[in-house]
Amino acid sequence: MDTATAATALSDATRQWMIEWGFNPDQPAATGQYQDTPLIRAARNGDATITLELLALGPQACALNHRNMDGTNALWAAVVANSLDVAEQLLAAGIDIDNLNDNGASVLMYASSSGKAPWVQYLLEAGADSSAETLDGFTALDLAANIHCLKLLKAAR
């Protein structure tokens, strides 16, 4: 779907939401503050309804794999927000589960280092690469913040 067609496909509620967050509803893939797209903002808010509507525009029109100023994508934002619904939608749409941010960290590494064991398990089950390394050579296992994350990652080896 091209951008012009995509913009007209948005509901009035989503268009209003975009305006409230400083986005132009006629350009759903355009970036705003921190180089976030509307999709990243919706994921960070844990807003499954807006996320689903943006994803329905198609991967290019919603900038599915866009990386913000830190190099993180919408999946990372969904995990920060603890929004399983949004994460499932993003993964179903084909978001890069192994995107590495500007420090070489993946969302699995973030979840592990934050002690978010349920997310570690979820991401591993979804196919996240547990062998990826940061720029300093650390893996999600090296960064595990608690015993639960450590056990999950050891089992994944």
Please describe what this structure looks like.
By secondary structure, the protein is mainly alpha-helical. The protein folds into 2 domains: 1-96, Alpha Horseshoe (Serine Threonine Protein Phosphatase 5, Tetratricopeptide repeat); 97-157, Alpha Horseshoe (Serine Threonine Protein Phosphatase 5, Tetratricopeptide repeat). The chain is built from 9 helices and no strands. The chain has helices at 3-9, 12-20, 38-45, 48-55, 74-80, 84-93, 107-113, 117-125, 147-155. The longest helix has 10 residues, at 84-93. The model has no long low-confidence stretch (mean pLDDT 95).
Topology:
Blueprint: H1 3-9, H2 12-20, H3 38-45, H4 48-55, H5 74-80, H6 84-93, H7 107-113, H8 117-125, H9 147-155
Quick rundown:
The protein is mostly helical and 157 residues long. The chain has 2 domains: 1-96, Alpha Horseshoe (Serine Threonine Protein Phosphatase 5, Tetratricopeptide repeat); 97-157, Ankyrin repeat-containing domain (Serine Threonine Protein Phosphatase 5, Tetratricopeptide repeat), CATH 1.25.40.20.
Specify the CATH architecture of the largest domain. Answer: Alpha Horseshoe
Between the first and last Cα atoms, what is the distance in angstroms? 40 Å
| Sheet of most strands | none
Our count of helices gives 9
What's the order of the H and E elements? Answer: HHHHHHHHH
Q: For the record, what CATH class of the largest domain applies?
A: Mainly Alpha
Low-confidence stretches: none
Which percent band covers the strand fraction?
under 5%
Quick one: CATH superfamily of the largest domain?
Ankyrin repeat-containing domain
Alpha-beta content class = mainly alpha
Helical residues, percent:
40-55%
Q: Overall 3D geometry?
A: elongated
